Amino acid sequence: MATSKTIVLPEPDQLKKIFQDIGTTEEKIDVEVKTLVEWMRKQPHLPNPDDERRIRMFLIMCKNSLERTKESLDQYYTIKSMVPEFFSDRDPTSPSLVRSMGISIFIPLPKLTPEGHRISLSRLRDPSGIDNYEFLDYVKVNFMSIDIRLSKLDMFKKETFIFDLKHFSLSLLTTVVPHVKKFIYCATTAYPLRIHQVHIVNMPTYAQSMVNMVLGILKKKIASRVSAISVRRLSYGSGMVNIDGFDIP
């Protein structure tokens, strides 16, 4: 079983299935990555690729389409320069980001699902620090996490997100609303993630209007995969999420 830090990477049979699902092989992916590297080097507005891992993951997320991958890489680097509030000042040791990581978390669970999907969990870590919660810092840390995973650590087929809204007060949500549209745009345009499911748990009734707004912004295909779950018990540990007694690896 391969691991990368605390992330468990796909088993050989899972990896083979990922490539089969997009109609390619690992050997063909290697060749196409070289093609994309050369393409990037010829684009004056794009940086020289510093590693091939990010390009490889973009190609897999774009289902082995060279043209879609080129478009996605172009959007990724363009958006990063257009939205500095999300993509600049990314020092993880800065006081603001250290504070954000102490208040909230956005983490991938170590184990893949049997289908090769990665589950990522977002929740408040320390409700007592809610008065210092800054959504822009939260988004910045989220995107930094995804960047690291795509370029250095991770390999997966699709992604499932679990957003735990426990302890989210009405006043906190009102600070989030002004930035939601730009956040959704960046998350779905800069990153070619293949979203399998999005689960919202412990959602207070006053959050429904914000969720409705998000659903209206999302593409219909993604919006259809969003669900609000009513749960009696939600716990985390041992690399799993346990919902009402059922483990999600």
From TrEMBL:
Gene3D superfamilies in alphabetical order: CRAL-TRIO lipid binding domain
Q: Which GO terms describe its cellular component?
A: membrane
Occurrences of domain CRAL-TRIO (ranges): 94-249
* UniProt-listed InterPro entries: CRAL-TRIO_dom, CRAL-TRIO_dom_sf, CRAL/TRIO_N_dom_sf
MF-aspect GO terms: phosphatidylinositol bisphosphate binding
The record, for SUPFAM superfamilies, names:
CRAL/TRIO domain, CRAL/TRIO N-terminal domain
A Pfam family: CRAL_TRIO
The protein here is known as: Alpha-tocopherol transfer protein-like
This protein's species is Sipha flava
